[in-house]
Design brief:
By secondary structure, the protein is of the alpha/beta class. Helices cover 31% and strands 18% of the residues. The chain contains seven helices and nine strands. It has a six-stranded mixed β-sheet, with helices on both faces. Strands 2-1-4 form a three-stranded antiparallel β-sheet, with helices on one face. Strand 8 and strand 9 (214-215) form a beta hairpin. Helix 4 (136-146) runs parallel beside helix 5 and helix 6 crosses helix 7 (234-242). The longest helix is centred in the last third of the chain and has 17 residues, at 167-183. The protein binds adenosine-5'-triphosphate (ATP) and magnesium ion (MG). Adenosine-5'-triphosphate binds at residues 17-18, 21, 41, 43-49, 76.
């Protein structure tokens, strides 16, 4: 793998975002020794904040994209990246930072690039047409299949890639990941809530719950437990949920 370790160096003891988040008070270093690492945990636990910090340190646009996609619609990145040290072996410069939440802006950026003269088929890697002309889920999968190349060594950071994907397209994304693993030139770090994606065999799962970032097994995640309970017996769970106090 390329990105071996993320270290937190001299984190300020600050009551302001993001240093007030419990996971950035205790975290010292994270091992990334697998093809695929998942960030998993409750809403607001700090997964996107850390993924963004890693993306900036790796040289990607904080709003999403690769090194070549330098566009700014709103500068909202946190200062966490200044306190992250990445250990590479070897360093890779290729890759992509996918953010479901700002994908619209990325699609607009590609459309703007397409209007520049002499741009060689700007939509080549994105399903052959504007991402805005594809459905939300179609545009996500076009990017995952077309833009995330397994030809060159690359680091791919994906923040909630499942956001627009149907369960069957989530399975298709598992297949995309499997193909990357076979080629052996990619490393992925993925923040997700999907109990389907989290089932990828052999991945490292890092939990952001409980105030620190710790390895967890698939079956121990609340995503797995709650989904399983619900699907096994929706009636029981709904009765419990809707019960009057
Ligand atoms: N610019 C900001 N200023 C202040 N607080 C922020 C800012 N951005 C995020 N936060 C807070 O930091 C916390 C962590 O946010 P983050 O987006 O990293 O969570 P997350 O684990 O990715 O959650 P989710 O699963 O909902 O995507 C949240 O409580 C959020 O409200
Ligand atoms: Mg997030």
């Amino acid at each position: 793998m390329f990105l071996r370790e993320v270290r937190f160096v001299d984190l300020p003891n600050d009551s302001k975002h993001p240093f007030n988040l419990p996971v950035f008070r205790t975290a010292h270093h994270l091992n990334m020794n697998r093809f695929l690492t998942f960030f998993v945990g409750e809403n607001g636990s700090g997964k996107s904040t850390l993924l963004e910090g890693i993306a900036i340190q790796a040289g990607f646009n904080p709003e999403g994209g690769s090194k070549g996609n330098q566009f700014v619609t709103a500068s909202t990145e946190s200062s966490l990246f200044q306190y992250l040290k990445l250990s590479w072996m070897p360093k890779v410069t290729e890759g992509f930072f996918f953010r479901a939440e700002s994908f619209f802006n990325f699609a607009s950026h590609i459309d703007a690039a397409a209007k520049e003269p002499f741009t060689p088929d700007p939509y080549f890697a994105y399903g052959g047409r504007s991402l805005h002309e594809q459905s939300h889920g179609e545009s996500f999968l076009s990017l995952f299949t077309g833009r995330l190349s397994h030809r060159k060594p690359a680091l791919y950071l994906l923040d909630e890639p499942e956001a627009a994907l149907s369960p069957s397209r989530q399975l298709a994304l598992l297949r995309v990941l499997h193909d990357h693993q076979k080629f052996g030139r990619s490393q992925f770090i993925i923040a997700t809530h999907s109990p389907i994606l989290l089932g990828y065999p052999g991945a490292t799962l890092l939990s952001f719950d409980g105030g620190s970032i710790e390895p967890i097994s698939y079956q121990e995640t609340s995503h797995y437990i709650i989904s399983k309970q619900f699907l096994n017996s929706p009636g029981t769970m709904l009765r419990e949920l809707f019960k009057d106090e």
